[in-house]
Amino acid sequence: MSEVAKHFVAVDMGSNSFHLVIAREQDGSIQILHKEKQLVQLADGLDDNNILSDVAISRGIACLQEFKQRFSSLPLPQVRMVATYTLRVAKNREAFLEAAQKVLPYPIEVVSGHEEARLIYSGIAHTQVLAARNLVIDIGGGSTEVVLGSRSRASSLSSLRCGCVSYNQRFFKDGVISAAAFNAALSAADKQFASLSKEYFSGDWDLTLGSSGSVKAICEALLQFYGDDTVTMARLKQLKQQLISWGHVNNIVLENVDSKRAPLLPAGLAIMISFFRRLPVTSLEFANGALREGVLYELAGIGTFSDIRQRTVDSMAQLYHIDRQHAEKVRLTAMTLFDGVADSWGLVDQRHTLEYAAILHEIGIHISSRAHHKHGAYIIANSDMPGFGEQQQQLLARLIGNQRKKLDLERLTQLDEPEKRLSIRLIALIRLAVLLNLGRIASGIHISSVSTSEQGLNLALKEPKHRISLFVKDLQREQKQMANVALDLQFSFA
């Protein structure tokens, strides 16, 4: 890679717009090569039952096909694709994800609301100087993220169910801009902001920032009327009255605002006014950074990204009082097994996932020692885990849930073939790592060698068979479990 520039591609699949950013690493920093935005309005295709329409899916796939043309000729690009609110709630999102996979063969991370908020703050932190205490709002198409942070570190993350596309559908769908429509939208938004935790109402911050399209459109409208884009409550109210006087989105005359964005301005403005009147905010500035910049910089490993997931894992280990000494032994064993099979099994990119599974494998033991793997899987699957995309989080839960006893064959068989194969191979490694340290043996059972065959895994141990007869029985039971998923486990002894 030293002679070829590293290219990074971030795709942000928002509820209103899809964004593409292409960059390269230049002398240890990021150089943006291309930015592109397409108005897809994915959230506009959600019905009352959260079913995404075929038309909306087609719009999204068509956009991805065009994005592909921008970077398909780059040499070995590193690509990260992130989806937010609409695909988070769509009950038929698999239809979109499967179609997208055919167009762009890269995994799509459907991030949680908290993870979306963290990435937004990360994007802002990488693109401007932040104060000691910051409040950030990002009004998206389907959700609004609100974050408190100190310098580059987010401290409180919230995601609210209000967005410019969803509120446009609910309150301004016919294009009419009336006082009654605004009042209804404000009332609904007020309830969302009222649900924030008490930290958000302290007023203890130095800088208030807004990011993404809706905030930008509001700032652009204010610039036209006032000569600068500083946002205050008085200016927001005056903009609201101007919109009401126009009466319909077709009558909006704002030269600075994108004509495609203008119809969503009333909905975004209602959310912003509610933000100002519910929280002790006096003014707000626009921030150029957003989720896609957070994705891009973390993809490139610039900043503190390498520590975010480890920090999350360490925090959970501490919260659930994990035996770190034992967890470390399981981790070291798992890494020994991993190093022997990573290349032949195509697992090189999953090293950290296996490490995290080893460290957290007993996270559910305080609930039940007999079924701690099941409780652990539930905790992982349902926790907010900053730094983890939904797919990686679910894979981690899958590993922990299948680390011991019977395999969950029903759920494994429901996975598509590549994900199933990946899961089974990682499960085999975590199961063996746990088994080799069963009973908290002081020094564990030592591995002589590990290798793969066409059908499975070959494990050679340093101990003579007669000295570990009980463990041999455990291995024989494990052999049967692995056979259920067509993995042939073979073992030998000194």
UniProtKB/TrEMBL annotation:
Pfam families on file: Ppx-GppA, Ppx-GppA_III
Name of the featured protein: Ppx/GppA phosphatase
Record-annotated Ppx/GppA phosphatase N-terminal domain positions: 21-299
The entry's keywords: Hydrolase
Entry's Gene Ontology BP terms: polyphosphate catabolic process
Species the sequence originates in: Shewanella fodinae
Keyword Hydrolase annotated: yes
GO molecular-function terms, A-Z: exopolyphosphatase activity
InterPro entries, A to Z: ATPase_NBD (IPR043129), GppA/Ppx_hydrolase (IPR050273), Ppx_GppA_C (IPR048950), Ppx_GppA_N (IPR003695), PyroPPase_GppA_Ppx (IPR030673)
